[in-house]
Amino acid sequence: MDSASPNFPAVKDRRTDALGDLRVIPDEILCIILTRLAPHDVGRLSCVSSVMYILCNEEPLWMSLCLRIANHEIEYKGSWKKTALDQCHTSLNGFSFDDGNVERKENISFEEFHMEYDCQKPVMISGLADNWPARKSWTSEELLLKYPETKFRISQRSSKKVSMKFKDYVSYTQVQHDEDPLYIFSDEFGEVAPDLLKDYSVPHIFKEDYFDVLDTDQRPSYRWLIIGPERSGASWHVDPGLTSAWNTLLYGRKRWALYPPGRVPLGVTMHVNENDGDVDIESPSSLQWWLDFYPLLADTDKPIECTQLPGETIYVPSGWWHCVLNLETTIAVTQNFVNSKNFEFVCLDMAPGYRHKGVCRAGLLAVDDSSFVDDENNSMCTENGSSHFNLDRREKRLRIEEGCSENCTNGKSLTDGCGGDLEYSYDISFLSKFLDHERDHYNSLWSSGNCIGQREMRDWLWKLWVQKPGLRDLIWKGACLALNAGLWYERVGAICNFLEFPGPSLDEKLPVGTGSNPVYLINDYVIKIFVEGGLEASLYCLGTELEFYNIVHKLDSSLKTYISSVLASGILLSENGSYKVLPWDGRGIPELIGSSSVSSIKHKEVDYPFGLVAKKNFEYLNAGKPLNESENCVKPSSAWPYIVTRRCKGNIFAELRDTLSSEDELNLASFLGKQLHDLHLLPVPRPSCNISVPVIGEDYIQPLHSSGFSENVTDRIGHPADLELFISILNRKRKDVGKRLAQWGHPIPSNLIEKVDDYIPRDLNILFDELEHKTDCRSYTWVHSDIMDDNIYMMPYSDSMLEENLSEPCVEEGGAYIKRTNNSNIHKLSWVPSYILDFSNLSAGEPILDLIPVYLDIFRGDPRLLKQFLSSYKLPFLRQKSLSEGVDSNRFNRLSYRAMCYCILHDDNVLGAIFSIWKELRSATSWEEVEEKVWGDLNTFI
């Protein structure tokens, strides 16, 4: 039969493609040629193709190579390849560069450092570590005695985070002869070996660190223990977020090479992703660079160099390229920091977009069109008048060419030979011109390479604003770079002018909180501008919130006591450089929207066309889509919905968390249980119905109350269309869930990501089919979905509050919930909860969804508070009958299983919070283990 028939496809000759022009040479001749090469060249040649790999790894070949280079005596290492390479590994004798051109200082003062070096040029300083215990105790021998079983993180050319016991690492260093050895680069050494933190202190000239307003578990990685053998080191890079760094060597010698900002080293390639600005750097190992690229450099193109000796501290300014090679076994400690000199650069690097990120690191090599000019308004223009450079490629490749730029060692400017006579300057006013100012910074995709996330960035700026009022001018400059704060300040001012409200004062001009929408506290009111997800998503958020407030007040729900009242709402428009405000209460379709590109309005006839029903349809259309596939997140908007509410009295819980007593925490848990009880009993709008006024009836799904259960209760639980839509959204999120978890990565264990498809059913209908006749009620209710520590307000407790029904746990009497005033613990309270904020993320679904932010963010996984919450919530999730029948017999009936599934399918990375709270679960072998640890207590709640 013809071998090329469909049943027997032709076999392709892999040798021909793999060897290219060498295919004409017989294998025997190729093997003879290989025996004439040096062992390292054979090793490199093995990487060329699969066939060459086979030829280059034959044991007879390596035996021949080994015998040819052997001197006197051979010690067999288990294979001839290892034995040969053991005899010819590179020694770094003579690599020292003691006559370097990095300035050296001794016991420098803060003033001298701040004026002469800070964010300007490197300096090697001696004397800063003379009194550290680490100067004597940080040797391999001493550390091995103290920490033999301690696991430290290992640096490797992989995204995976691998750790080794210190005794195993020391054993490795004693026998290895790798060209690029593994080395300890541990950012968690302070957690796994806290006594090491006592052995050193931050030098006085580096004490200023603006990240110190964040708790240790909130701030990005900033300190590392570095231990490496000869030939190990850090390849060329710029420190994350354009932070500055100091590095103190305690043992051994290091060779350093540095280039100023914008000067990409020869052999290094940069990739800047056009979507999110993520920067990826491809660089040879430090040893390979010195061996293969350094000799190619003319003297005028060589980097700034020096050899660091024990006890010396080198300072690396923001944006400087640097490469480090360990000349012998070394032990060092390093920290990155943000201070007044580099703060604006760090904020700039966080900003959405990609042009500025490339220019900060690669200078004018990152600019495709060098014909731009700087106009009167300091905006960057091309010849055709566009306000942006022609950087349209999906992935930018930026590579320095030989002779492309002149050497620069002062760290201030660099003239790029490729860009004509244009001058590159590492200056914030110059670099900020490359920002994409048209982006809605609150709404743009955030770079995954940023050292902190968007929420964390906003939280950091706000904490700096509150805790360091003397720095507000500088903080405002940083906020304008990272958040485009100046533009949002203009917009909120336009809203205030229209409403004839006082505008924000100088102290009120920074947006507050960590949410994805700009929020301003002005006098006794709050203005929130909706931007998250783009215009269409923002309309649904505001429309649903206004519909919710209307229902609460029409039904006279007790919730209205604990939520802020609405003062105004509408849409802000930008037209020809000016602003226009259109009032809108959520009813009907504004003329602006009816004539715009918002095309998914399917419920035009209802009272709230952008209310909950329409929002759920919108959620369905976007469920499971990656953020960067949403057009709304790319297109700049010219319209922004807004809402104005009464300002709540009290303090944000996030600011009080560490000062609350145990009684305060329990009281808060009871308060949240009672408020979510009331929220989940509110009637939910039904789809495909004309809603004129929010009354309980056919136009609303009426959840069953916590008493009076009947056998035919399922007839009154949720409209089928509601539940069907909710399940459809879940199934869309279920698709490719493993891929999404892999993108989130650490600290989610990779072995669990591989098992997620076996844990979550392919069709989530089964979760509801199993409970169809066992559920008491509320399979579909209002869901706040964002009750987090910055959305709870608390007030100082006073005796007058005993009769005000603010937060005391309640008991049922005669069908009503009243205050229980005979609790002796009430007199131990310091703070009581007063308000729940931010209903812009309102949705509908299973009420258990609201447990996720409450338990993980408010309670931080405290089972004591969860129990208190559930006892106050008082609404069962499963019937007592189903529990007595053995809820554990079917995982789909377990509340813990449902909660765990919702965590995995959540739009936000709540799994990151889980594995941060319960660090021991990072070694879990199954999702069932995680489920039991985190949510197991739910199964005992009836």
Q: What is this structure, in a nutshell?
A:
With 942 residues, the chain is an alpha+beta fold.
Which helices and strands occur, and which strands form pairs?
Layout: H1 14-19, H2 27-34, H3 39-45, H4 50-56, H5 59-69, H6 80-87, E1 104-106, H7 110-116, E2 123-126, H8 134-137, H9 140-146, E3 151-155, E4 162-165, H10 166-175, E5 183-186, H11 189-192, E6 223-228, E7 233-238, E8 244-251, E9 254-259, E10 269-273, E11 279-282, H12 286-293, E12 304-308, E13 312-316, E14 321-326, E15 330-337, H13 343-350, H14 355-362, E16 373-374, E17 380-381, E18 395-399, E19 413-415, E20 423-425, H15 428-431, H16 454-467, H17 472-483, H18 485-499, E21 519-522, E22 525-529, H19 535-554, E23 566-575, E24 578-583, H20 591-594, H21 612-622, E25 639-646, E26 651-652, H22 653-656, H23 662-680, E27 684-685, E28 700-701, H24 720-734, H25 737-744, H26 750-753, H27 756-759, H28 765-769, E29 781-783, E30 792-796, E31 810-813, E32 816-819, E33 831-836, E34 843-845, H29 851-858, H30 863-873, H31 880-884, H32 895-905, H33 910-917, H34 927-935
Parallel strand pairs: 1-2
Antiparallel strand pairs: 2-13, 3-4, 3-5, 5-6, 6-15, 7-14, 8-13, 8-15, 9-12, 9-14, 10-11, 10-18, 16-17, 19-20, 21-22, 22-25, 23-24, 23-25, 26-30, 27-28, 29-34, 30-33, 31-32
Helix pairs in contact: 5-6, 13-17, 16-17, 19-21, 21-24, 23-30, 29-33, 32-34
